[in-house]
Amino acid sequence: MPHLRRSALAGLLLAVVPATALSACGFDYPTDRVNTIAAGVNDRSGDIDALGVRVLATAEGEGRLIGSLSNNLREDAALESVSSSADITAGAFEPVEVAGRGIVNLATTAVVPLSGDFTAGQFVPLDLTFSDGSTLSLDVPVVKPCFQYTQVPTDLPGATASGKAAGKTTDESEATESEATESDEAHAEGGDATFNCADEAPEPESAH
Question: Whole-model pTM above 0.70?
Answer without folding.
Answer: no
